[in-house]
Every structure is written in structure tokens, then in C-alpha cells.
Amino acid sequence: MKRLLRVGLTGGIGSGKTTVRNFFNGLGAPTIDADEISHRITKPGQAAFDEVVALFGEESLDETGNLDRKRLRALIFDEPDLKQKLEAIIHPRVRAQIREFADRVDYPYCIICIPLLLETGAQSTVDRVLVVDAPEELQVARVSRRDNADERQTRSIIRSQTGRAERLRAAHDIIVNDGNINDLKTRVKNLHDRYMKIGSEEKR
């Protein structure tokens, strides 16, 4: 049976995971994003929406009837039990959709973007861990530009995630995203070529 090389893409907030994933996608690699699945299944009428509302109450909704994700983040940040209950609703559904995606892939490898790969123990579901790394000050600056976020909150999120050193120790491959966009594209292309070679050999 042919075996698909599954590459788990992860990194801290503001490290550039989405940009890296998009570059892989542009090179032809099939990609999927756990955060995008999570957002999709928690929209009104979708699989997890009613369960999340039942857990947090009507106050978890915004004026349009969608989940108020900023409010939810604040609630679970202060309540670890609520965070675990929310993850119990969402994570099994996300994992199931990732498995379905991987089963359909006809390519030497695929990129599975899981921001909380190490925090959720999902590294056991992939063959290689690819970490996108950036210095903390650069992470904070990017998140501030992207989300107009408060620096204190951004640093709190960084502290709540797996530490940078631990993340790097878990990596099979590392992309340091601290330069210009062309440098980043080159690093992605080099890894793409490497994964194509590894994946092609495993399919023999």
C-alpha cells in the first residue's frame, strides 16, 4: 500500500504559518488547516455550533448570531475546564476531517497545518513536524499589525503556547521566518523538493 508523507506544520502565533502554508500550496502541495476546519464546523448550522452554544450559553453569540470568538478566547483563557470541554467538542471533528483529507490525497506528501500541534499531542498523527520559527518581538509586531492586538494579550498567548525551545526540539524541519518574503519562498521551495523526494521514495 502506498504511504502518504504527512507533514505537520506548526509554530507560535505570528510566526507566519499561514504564509508558509500558502507557499506550499502554490507549489502544488495539498494542504489543510485545522483552524479553518474549526471555524467552519462552529458556524451556525454546522456540526459543533449547537454544542458550543449549549456549553457557553447565548452570551457566546454576537449580534449576527455567530459565535463571538474573541469573547470565547477570553473565557477559556481564564477557565481551563471550559477550554478542555470546548476542545472535546471540536478536536475529534477536526481530526476526522484531516484524516478524510489525507485519505483522498494523491501526491507524494501533504501539509497539515495544526497551530497547536504539540499542545494537543497531535504530533503522533504526522510523519514529520515542520516548525515555522520567529523571534518573540517579531511575533508580537506581526500580530499587532495583523489583528490590531494588545501587546500584553499577545505576549500572554505566546506564554500559554508551547515554549519556543521545546517546539524547536520537537521539529524535524525548521523554517526561520525572520527575513524577507523571497528568503521565505526559497526556504519553502527547498523543503518542498525534499518532501517530494522523501514522499516519492515512500510510495515505491
Would you mind describing this structure in some detail?
The chain is of the alpha/beta class and 204 residues long. Helices cover 55% and strands 12% of the residues. A five-stranded parallel β-sheet has the order 2-3-1-4-5, sandwiched between helices. The longest helix has 25 residues, at 80-104. The termini are close together.
Summarize this entry quickly:
With 204 residues, this protein is of the alpha/beta class.
How many beta-strand runs?
5
Mean pLDDT: 91
- The protein's oligomeric status is single chain
How many H/I helices? 9
Order of helices and strands: EHEHHHHEEHHHEH
Poorly predicted runs of 5 or more residues: none
Descriptive labels:
204 residues, 12% strand, five-stranded parallel β-sheet, 5 strands, alpha/beta
Topology record:
Layout: E1 5-11, H1 17-26, E2 31-33, H2 34-41, H3 49-56, H4 69-78, H5 80-104, E3 109-113, E4 128-133, H6 136-147, H7 151-160, H8 164-170, E5 173-176, H9 181-202
Parallel strand pairs: 1-3, 1-4, 2-3, 4-5
